[in-house]
Each structure stands twice: as structure tokens, then as C-alpha cells.
Amino acid sequence: QIENDYGRTIEAYGGKLNIDGQDFDGEFLRIGRVSLMFQTPDGAYSRVWDQSARRWEDGAEHKNQIKQGLKIANKQIAPELVLLPVPAPEAG
Fold first, then answer.
1. Which of 21, 25, 27, 67 is the most exposed place for a label (fewest CB within 10 A)?
2. Between β-strands 35-39 and 22-31, what pairing exists: parallel, antiparallel or unpaired?
3. Residues paired with 35 in a beta bridge
4. pLDDT tens-place string over residues 45-86
5. How buried is 47 (Cβ within 10 angstroms: 0-12 exposed, 13-18 middle, 19+ buried)?
């Protein structure tokens, strides 16, 4: 049951991410088991984890949506629809 619930949760947690050889403090945003994102407090750097390439991709185009998702995960605003990058499902 715990594993099943984990796939339907949203979580924000602090940490560091190495971007171009430099460590940046920020927050990670996890949406279930399908999406992982990172953003610095000033929003200067936003990254999205690409599981197929197994690397962090630039997420600047999703900067505002990631910020909104972090606020929802931190319970600073009420849950609402947010358009975040989620990989397309693969054939089984």
C-alpha cells in the first residue's frame, strides 16, 4: 500500500544540484514516480530530469509552473492544475 501511495504523491525537498560544474542550492519537486524537477530559490535555474537520457535537462520554459508546483507541494497555495513536464507513457 505504501508503494502504491508513493506513486500518487507530490513532494518538495531541499538539496543541491550540480549545474555546469557548480553546486546550487534549491528545491526538488517530485510528482509521483513520473517527474522530478529542480529549481533555485531565485528561479534562475530550473531543471527537469530526463529518465530516458538519464540526465538533467534545462527547464527554463517550465520555470513558472515548477515554482507553482513547489508552492502546492509546500502547502503554500491550494492544489490546482499545473502544466508540468511529464514523459509520455511507454508501450508495455
1. 21
2. antiparallel
3. 31
4. 999 999 889 999 999 999 999 999 999 999 999 988 887 777
5. buried
In angstroms, the CA 56 to CA 75 distance is: 26
Look at residues 69, 13, 73, 20 and name the one whose alpha carbon lies nearest to residue 45.
20
Largest distance between two CA atoms of the chain: 40
Q: What order of strands is seen across the sheet that includes strand 46-50?
A: 10-19, 22-31, 35-39, 46-50, 55-58
Q: Per-residue pLDDT tens for 20-39? A: 999 999 999 999 888 999 99
Tell me the three cell numbers of residue 61.
520554459
Residue 48, exposed/middle/buried by CB under 10 A (0-12, 13-18, 19+)?
Answer: buried
Question: Residue 40 has which C-alpha cell?
Answer: 533555485
